[in-house]
Amino acid sequence: MRSLGVSLLFIAGASAIVDKFNNNLVFRSPYFDEPQFGHDTVALSRRTLEFAKRDQVPADGFKDGKYPGFYVSNLSNAPFIWSSGVNFTHSVASGDPYDTSVILWTRAVPLPSSTGQLPDQSVPICVVYKVFTKSDLSGRPVDSGEAFTSYDVDWTVKVEAARLKPDTKYYFQFADCANPSGVSPVGSTRTVASSNTPADKVNGGKPMTLAVFSCSQYQAGYFNAYGYAAQNVTADIFIHLGDYIYESVGNGAKIGRAVEGRELATIHDYRQRLGQYRSDLDLQYAHQTAPWVVDDHEIADNAWKAGTADSNDTAQGCTFSPSGACFTDRKLAGTRAYHEWMPIRQLDARDQLRIWRNFQVGKLFDLSMLDTRQYERDITDIYYNRLIASLKDAPQRSLMGHNQEKWLLDTLSKSKDRKAVWRIIGQQIVFTQVVDLSGGINLDAWDGYRANRNRILDHLYNNQINNNIILAGDSHANWVSDLAHANDTINYDSATGRGAIGVEFAGTGVTSSSGTFVKGNLTDSIAVSTKYVNNNIDLQWNEGFFRGFFTLTLDSSVLNATYYSMRNVTYRNLDGFASAHFTVKAGENRLSRPVAGGKVLSGALKYPSN
Ligand SMILES: *[C@@H]1O[C@H](CO)[C@@H](O)[C@H](O)[C@H]1NC(C)=O
Ligand SMILES: *[C@@H]1O[C@H](CO)[C@@H](O)[C@H](O)[C@H]1NC(C)=O
Ligand SMILES: *[C@@H]1O[C@H](CO)[C@@H](O)[C@H](O)[C@H]1NC(C)=O
Ligand SMILES: *[C@@H]1O[C@H](CO)[C@@H](O)[C@H](O)[C@H]1NC(C)=O
Ligand SMILES: *[C@@H]1O[C@H](CO)[C@@H](O)[C@H](O)[C@H]1NC(C)=O
Ligand SMILES: *[C@@H]1O[C@H](CO)[C@@H](O)[C@H](O)[C@H]1NC(C)=O
Ligand SMILES: *[C@@H]1O[C@H](CO)[C@@H](O)[C@H](O)[C@H]1NC(C)=O
Ligand SMILES: *[C@@H]1O[C@H](CO)[C@@H](O)[C@H](O)[C@H]1NC(C)=O
Fold first, then answer.
1. What is the reported pLDDT for 37?
2. What pLDDT, on the 0 to 100 scale, is given for residue 316?
3. Is the CB of 523 under 6 A from ligand 1?
4. Residue 512 C-alpha to ligand 5 middle, in angstroms?
5. pLDDT score recorded for residue 516
6. Closest residue to atom 7 of ligand 2, CA basis
7. Residue span of the signal peptide, if any (predicted)?
8. What residues of the chain score a pLDDT lower than 50?
9. Which ligand is nearest to the CA of 78?
10. How far, in Å, CA of 77 to CA of 26, rounded?
11. Cα-to-centroid distance, 567 and ligand 7 (Å)
12. Of 517, 518, 521, 522, which is best to mutate to test ligand 5, by the most ligand atoms within 8 angstroms of its C-beta?
């Protein structure tokens, strides 16, 4: 215990410090209200004060082998924070836009002192954030604040900019509190319309565009799709449906994309990988230009609630794990790093893994983001457990877990009740049945969890919930389908779309390749797609040759989807083209006919017009 006098001296400062640690939402990650899993910011503030005391001891007499770099600068002006400069190493990002607030993100790393001494890692960094309505940052900031970061959270910063106006574009910047001229790049972001805004007034009456991505493997190619979406297409919100990072190492050396580190297991591994991915300039730029809504905690390949294909925990423990780390440890490390690096909100103090969440964008649409990977998913295909095939129809088997499933069904009903025009469900894996060319199905997709899929479809049909749009990633190919019960040729008509209850738009990867579609041979790849559309009733278009992304542009009467193909991801470029364009009219619950106007620039339509 310190003497009373010293304590009193620090009381005012201590609470101010705790506030600034708390302003950085990253310290709550991944479990706020659970200090044993998150960060105890009161203890961090105490540590900061303890360390700051060293500044009041003459340098020459100070012996502390643990903190050799401490006396690198004069901290008297700002005794608790680093004052020798900050490097905003990974630009800025924003995400999870509400009507009056949005999450802002940056990373602020201490720079060495002018004498070249390495920074004292134990001193926190203070950043100030300011939000403006003008791109030149003129005028008074509409919101601002200060937050601390430290090595405990990999120097990441995540704040909630509040007091914003609905449906408005904003510009923001971070600066070093100690040296206000040390600034981050300027980011742009936006809020969405308030939930009661009439559908035709959302986005100032103009259609809104969502750009949708998945499967971005660093070593497989350059993130041209992100650059193209940010520079050649205007999108209001970027959505990522999972496989934002890959946990494996792979071989990207020959295109200059070698991955650092190893198969991810520890907090250091996950941070290093996220940091390397985010060094990609196209990804950085895409984060800098628009708010993102992201999905999946990115733990490991084919993850389910208690394991993964790569972790291999068994009844014998973690002895088979290539990393030597048990799955539970990986899951905690992966989740924590994800919340540090991604501009995502934390929603529920008591539900530690919850990232499923809903965005009400006026009465135009609800965007419901699911977690079909980590939350409470029953065991999936981990390649050697083929008995899963016999479980695919088990009624109790769940992909989402009870809480999330109930929440989704309620959210869909509420969305109908509040008279939102569209219901968009963002999730990881392909929903519609896809029987492959040898008659098999992908047990890691919804095809492995058929009862869960039927419960969702039944809920939509039985309650006459219309205008449902499901988004999916994961498969490294494009699949566009009417939404109906698998193999239902009585109620659903594949030629007209009669009897469907919506549409699924599943997208290819940003870079991850698909061998199935005959890499490098366009003709053969289209032949494969032709077989797929002929073999699968609901599937109207399939394409697997190009990497890319798609956009949804919607107003109160029409939702269009445009698929973009990137010509070459083996080097950095912005060479892309729109390969197919689909229309869904409000109230029709199916793709408009002729599907894609009967004409696409790649892949195969079930009913092409000649
Ligand atoms: C540190 O800065 C304070 C305030 O500017 C000044 O009074 C003090 O002399 C400085 N100390 C050293 C060692 O430069
Ligand atoms: C700041 O960080 C970037 C990205 O890691 C790095 O390339 C650059 O060299 C750093 N700048 C300084 C001054 O250290
Ligand atoms: C996991 O364990 C199974 C069963 O022992 C084995 O066949 C498989 O190769 C292991 N996988 C890994 C990635 O260690
Ligand atoms: C639909 O039919 C195909 C082909 O007969 C079969 O493989 C698949 O299991 C069926 N799907 C369902 C949900 O019964
Ligand atoms: C694609 O493969 C077919 C044979 O399956 C071959 O005839 C054709 O030349 C190949 N095209 C290219 C561009 O390699
Ligand atoms: C949808 O696409 C059609 C034709 O391609 C176009 O006429 C219409 O304006 C688009 N609507 C929206 C909301 O993008
Ligand atoms: C992609 O670009 C690389 C590097 O310029 C080139 O070698 C390769 O042939 C290109 N691939 C295609 C399909 O054009
Ligand atoms: C995308 O935009 C960039 C400039 O921002 C331009 O250089 C490039 O040619 C555009 N790509 C296409 C395919 O139009």
1. 67
2. 60
3. no
4. 22
5. 86
6. 89
7. 1-16
8. 1-12, 56-79
9. 1
10. 26
11. 9
12. 521
Q: Which of these, 137, 177, 141, lies nearest to 157 by C-alpha position?
A: 177
Please name the amino acid found at residue 446: W
- Write the CB contacts of 362 (distance below 8 Å, at least 6 apart in sequence): 167, 192, 193, 194, 195, 196, 197, 198, 199, 201, 202, 420
The set of residues, in sequence order, having a beta carbon less than 8 Å from that of 436 and lying 6+ positions away, is 442, 516, 532
End-to-end Cα distance, the chain: 84
Q: With contact defined as beta carbons under 8 Å apart, do 67 and 51 qualify?
A: yes
What would the two tokens of residue 542 be? 């399939």
Ligand nearest to the Cα of 560, by number: 6
Show the ligand 5 pocket: residues with CB < 6 angstroms: 521, 523-524
266: left (phi over 0), alpha (psi -120 to 50) or beta: beta
- Taking every pair of Cα atoms in the chain, the longest distance, rounded to a whole number of angstroms, is 88
Rg over CA atoms, the chain? 25
Ligand 7 midpoint to CA 570 (Å): 7
Show the tokens assigned to 307. Answer: 């394991």
pTM of the full structure: 0.92
Closest among 329, 268, 272, 335 to 299, alpha carbons compared: 335
pLDDT at 136: 98
**Rounded CA gap, 367 and 293, in Å?**
10
Distance CA 222, CA 217 (A): 9
Considering every ligand atom shown, identify the ligand nearest to the alpha carbon of residue 263 and give its number: 3
Q: Residue 56's CB: how many other CB atoms inside 10 A?
A: 9
Can you give the pLDDT at residue 358?
A: 98
Counting from 1 in the atom list of ligand 3, the atom nearest the Cα of 321 is 14
| 438-457 pLDDT tens trace | 999 999 999 999 999 999 99
Residue 89 beta carbon below 6 angstroms from any ligand 2 atom: yes
Place of tokens 């009903």: 413
CB 228 within 8 A of CB 551: no
144 lines ligand 7 (CB under 6 A): no
* Atom in ligand 8 nearest the alpha carbon of residue 575: 13
Peptide bond connecting 124 to the previous residue in cis, omega within 30 degrees of 0: no
CA 87 / ligand 2 centre spacing (Å): 6
pLDDT at 77: 38
Whole-number percent of the chain with pLDDT over 90 = 70
Residue-wise DSSP of 407-435? HHHHHHHHHHHTT-SEEEEE-SS--S---
Write the DSSP symbol of residue 252.
-
Q: Phi first, then psi: what are they for 283, rounded to 5°?
A: -65, -45
The length of the chain in residues reads 610
Given the CA of residue 527, which atom of ligand 5 is nearest to it?
5
What whole-number distance in Å separates Cα of residue 413 and Cα of residue 406? 11
Grouping H, G, I as helix, E, B as strand and the rest as coil, residue 445 is coil
Q: Residues enclosing ligand 3, CB less than 6 A?
A: 310, 312, 320, 322, 384
